[in-house]
Amino acid sequence: MLFGCASDDEDEDTSTLVAELTEINAQFEPEVLWEQSTDEGVQHYFSRLNPVVAYDKVFTAERLGDAYAFDKTTGEEIWHVDLSNIDGSRGFFDDRETARISGGGAAGYNMVIWGSENGIVYALNQENGELIWQAKVAGEVISNPALDSNKVLVNTGSGALIALDAQTGEQLWKTEQSVPPLTLRGASGVVTSAGGAFIGNAKGELVVYIIDNGQQGWATEIGEPSGATELQRIVDVDVTPVVFGDKIYGISSNGNLAALDMRSGREVWKRKYSSYRQLTIDGNQIFATDEKGHVYAIDRNDGTELWSQLSFTNRETTGAVSIGDYVVIGDLEGYLHWLNKTDGSIVARHRVDSSAIYVTPVVDEGLIYAQSRDGELQVIKTPE
């Protein structure tokens, strides 16, 4: 009977176990300059809502619809608007309906842009939060728009890339791509350069469109379908591409990290990494976090792996951002971790709050802006 109740440790599946944090020899203590709370945050929902630093302000939003601007230096609230009642039509006794804000932010042309799962794009005056325009688009807005050539470029979850007039919100053009029956929850943000709008798609491609008219240029496949099931063969490129010099870099959720010639789409090099987290390039180093939470430094010129940090298995680590001599990532327990750029060793740790750091932190002028699922926003200085 005792034998029948015994467990076989060898049969235990350890592939989904979350790595425990271990003690580190901290080399410094990060300093919190100010913090604010956006009340509800994004809760447990999928979201890539990120803080935006522009116009000497920090803009942020939460899923229900509250959007804020804080003074960049002091953290004092400058304005606050409710996007779920932006037209003021909700009565005193009416229940509040969530605006389902899930895309953005982005700033430019004296505006800050947010998008929603309801397919609505909001353009707010950056000075006072007043609505300049709102536009209905085809599909969910669950990634960052781009502002270029007096246009707001939005890539939606339905496979549509849409150009809106930055002054009026009028749709100028729309392109549509076929979407496989089974894809990941997510969509690539838009990055622009030299008259082109670059995105990843659910077919595992990096694609460029001409900003002026939406005409497609090249499309290069970087994902590699493999496996027996449709789930295993998902190759979405949900990470916003990164332009650096005359190259563009992208990574597939199941496939490769690739460097392409920006003008022709020709493959320069390709290496086997899979991710749906933000890429960061600093000098000749690419910093990437894979689907298991492992962090890598990769040579930008030829794709050679410089170091790997494997301590964060299944900790749902964010993309890595570069600051000084370090790269910083967040995790599912609300911690930020500082890694030495030279060898990937962990040199410092700071907890924002007990909920997850769900989106890659933002770096501006040597400061880190980190946001948690529960809506905690902190501005953190790394000692020199």
Give a structural overview.
The chain is mainly β and 384 residues long. It has 3 domains: 44-86 and 97-176, Lipocalin (Beta Barrel); 178-276, Thrombin, subunit H (Beta Barrel), CATH 2.40.10; 279-384, Lipocalin (Beta Barrel). It has one helix spanning 2-5, and strands at 31-37, 52-54, 57-61, 66-71, 77-82, 101-108, 111-116, 120-125, 131-136, 146-148, 151-155, 160-165, 171-176, 191-193, 196-200, 205-210, 216-221, 242-244, 247-251, 257-261, 267-271, 280-282, 285-289, 295-299, 305-309, 321-323, 326-330, 335-340, 346-351, 362-364, 367-371, 376-381. A 4-stranded antiparallel sheet has the order 1-32-31-30, with no helix packed on it. Strand 31 and strand 32 (376-381) form a beta hairpin. The model is unreliable at 1-7 (pLDDT under 50).
Whole-number mean pLDDT: 92
Strand order of the largest sheet: 1-32-31-30
The count of helical stretches stands at 1
The largest β sheet comes out as: 4 strands, antiparallel
CATH topology of the largest domain: Lipocalin
Subcellular location: Cell outer membrane
InterPro entries: BamB, PQQ_b-propeller_rpt, PQQ_rpt_dom, Quinoprotein_ADH-like_sf, WD40/YVTN_repeat-like_dom_sf
Domain Pyrrolo-quinoline quinone repeat: 65-309
Organism: Thalassotalea mangrovi
Describe, in short, the structure shown.
With 384 residues, the protein is mainly β. 1% of the residues lie in helices and 42% in strands.
